[in-house]
Amino acid sequence: MRRMTCIAVAAAMAATLLLAGGRPAGAAESINLFGWSEYIPQSVIDDFTKETGIEVNYEMYASNEEMLAKLFSGATKYDLIQPSEYVIEALTKEGKLEKLDVVELPNLKNIGPEFRGLPHDPKLEYSVPYMSGTVGIVVNTEKVKDPVTGYRDVFQEKYKGRIVILDDPLEIVTWALHTEGLPPNAVNKENVEKVKPMIATWLPLVKVYDSDSPKTALLNGDVDLGIVWSGEAALLYNENKKFQYTLPKEGAHRFIDNLAIPKGAPNKTGAHKFINYVLRPEVSVKISKEFPYTNPNVEARKLLTPEERANPASYPPGNPKLDTFRDIGENAVLVDKAITDLKAKSGA
Amino acid sequence: MRQESTAFAATVTGRQRPPGGTGWLLLAPLLVWVVAFVVAPAAIMLVYSFLKRGTLGGVVWEFTLDNYAAVADPTYLTIVIRSMVFATITTLLCLAAGYPVAYLIGRASEERRNLLLMLVMVPFWTSFLIRTYAWVTILKNQGLLNSVLLGLGVIGEPLELLYTRGAVILGLVYTFLPFMILPIYSSVEKLDGALIEAALDLGAGPLRAFARVIVPLTSPGIAAGVLLVFVPALGIYAVNDIMGGGRVDMIGNIIENQFKGNARNWPFGAALGTAMLVAFAFSYWLASRRQRLAEFGR
Q1: Chain B window 102-161: which residues touch A at a Cβ cutoff of 8 Å?
Q2: pLDDT-based confidence at residue A27 (cuts at 50, 70, 90)
Q3: Which of A313, A338, A326 lies closest to A133, judged by CA?
């Protein structure tokens, strides 16, 4: 899923090299796109080039932090990046993003109201939601018969050695904050200390930590339940309906991956054209079909088949309690340390 | 025992003639390579380890010793020790499995030797990550191995193979075995058969001949193999993530997380890296010093 496996990156890189070799050398207009791996269908990029004549140099990353590192190394001047919501907030704070020219983005109207007015970019001045998703519970209902509706239900002694979770310290801490009834974005020393004992009881039950492809362990039958990205759960559901996705009743993380233009981008016009192109319903729906996350483009959603719209991992029913992440600054260090400590103890 | 000590003598004693003008010219590409890809990165790492964390990754140019204070934490000590235990087990298993193979290849006839050597190197034609994922398909719950064992009726329930410590060790041994075989092979190849015969003629049993003649004569290969396996095995984290389920962190995971994880704490990652480098260089220096003393004392 979103941080996908390195194999696919390697394969994609090899493919890019081959393509690059076959391309006629010319001074055609181009944009440098730096996006998540396994997130933008090649057909969308090809069609954009066909229509506009703008070449897209597509580079991929596997984590927001990797993207930041390469962005600020300055080796390549990127025109478009694809950060998650809390990274948009951090980048904006530091003045590292270009303000978007709304006039050039008429298709921005397709973005649904629930993706507007969010704290990371309340007026969508610096970022446009590309795809969204949640972090929730997926259960192999053939193996797990009891209802699993919240974090506490997952982390039970009887599921020891049958659980996969994201290898992501901040995610784990926010699950515990939700469970304790604390606000998920109140990540500070006091609260982290408060939830540590609970996490200490959780981690020894976990069999696999995987942020790249948590579906693999579930699909292979090595684990029976887990807390994963919704896109992964949607793909599992498409594979076999026995994989059911639920959003934890205590509350869950809604992540939003966005398109944004870094400060000093050489081809801002081209970047705007690409954003506007992707916002077209008929283009956006192609992305949804390949990567079944929650599409923030409401017009594109209408073009999905009823079956695709009924996938509970892509479009969770009901009115779940969802929060986006905020930039937690320095506190990220203590989150990382807390989980490292607890993991070191649990794995002993 | 002249032959035995040559490999170490080349690095630890000053008995060689210093290189002349042509010598330096021939050395230049290697020196450039070493400076660009070993010295410079290590220097950057050292400098970064004394700076402060930047909010969006990177560093802020303010001097601090906090990163080293954070390194001296019992958790990291536990993790380093665990990584060393894994690396040691891997090295010993590679030695046990690799020595006989290297010996057989080294003593085989020339055409068979080339074929066998090629077989050792064939895995390198495929990406290391792809080979590691291949192990997942073999070891997983409904994987190749479990299916075969179930089909043969050897077991009634699938064995828990993947995401265990055993799986991590298996993955590490598999990854590093060629690095043990190749240097030992090159020592075995140079082995003088007459010396072994002499040992046997003079009344040494096969075991004694092996322990007193063959092992000492191939010890440069063993030393090189041990280094080539132990050092990378200590730092590698991909095998642990893919085959171990990332359940226990190795020191490599911790360092990686400082750059590619939530914390974005480059200076701390650099301090951990520097500490590992210093610890390793120091133990290497101790080991080679002891070796030198042992030789002089002989």
Answers
A1: 127, 129-130, 133, 136, 140-143, 158, 160
A2: low
A3: A313
Q: How far apart are CA A259 and CA A131, in angstroms?
A: 9
Structure pTM? Answer: 0.87
Distances (CA, A) of A194 to A180, A198, A206, B4: 9, 8, 21, 60
Q: Where are the beta strands (DSSP E) in chain B?
A: 52-53, 59-60
Taking CB atoms and an 8 Å limit, are A343 and B249 in contact across chains? yes
Closest chain A residue to the Cα of B246, Cα to Cα: A209
> Distances in Å between the alpha carbon of B7 and those of B177, B220, B288?
21, 6, 11
Residues 6+ apart with CB under 8 A from B17: none
Instruction: Answer whether A209 sits within 8 Å of B141, measured CB to CB.
Output: no
Interface pTM, i.e. ipTM: 0.85
A164-217 pLDDT tens trace: 999 999 999 999 999 999 999 999 999 999 999 999 999 999 999 999 899 999
Q: Is B163 within 8 Å of chain A by CB?
A: yes
Question: CB B260 to CB A62 under 8 A?
Answer: yes
| DSSP calls for A26-79 | ----EEEEEEETT-S-HHHHHHHHHHH--EEEEEEESSHHHHHHHHHH-SS--S
% pLDDT > 90, chain A:
86
- Mark out the alpha helices in B144-214 (DSSP H runs): 144-151, 165-190, 193-201, 206-209
CA–CA distance, B129 with A11 (Å, rounded to integer): 11
Residue A185 exposed, middle or buried by CB count within 10 Å (0-12, 13-18, 19+): middle
A97-136 core/surface letters (b: 16 or more CB in 10 A; e: else): bbebeeeebebbebbbeebeebebbeebebbbbbbbbbbb
Residue A200 near residue A342, CB atoms below 8 Å = yes
User: Quick check: B57 and A343 CB within 8 A?
Assistant: no
Closest CA to A170 of B242, B56, B254, B263: B263
Least confident of A3-7, A213-217, A332-336, B73-77: A3-7
Instruction: For residue A298, give how far its alpha carbon lies from the nearest alpha carbon of chain B (Å).
Output: 31
Please indicate whether, in this complex, the C-beta atoms of A209 and B140 are within 8 angstroms of each other.
no
- To the nearest whole Å, the CA of A166 is away from the closest chain B CA by 10
pLDDT tens column, A255-297: 999 999 999 999 999 999 999 999 999 999 999 999 999 999 9
Residues present in chain A in total: 348
**A10/B245 Cβ within 8 A:** no
Distance CA B250, CA B82 (A): 7
Residues forming beta bridges with residue A165, ordered by sequence position: A209, A227
Give the separation between CA A137 and CA A149, rounded to whole angstroms.
Answer: 8
- Are A55 and A82 in contact by the 8 Å Cβ rule? The answer is no
State whether B79 and A344 contact (CB < 8 Å). yes
Chain A contact for B58 (CB, 8 A cutoff):
yes
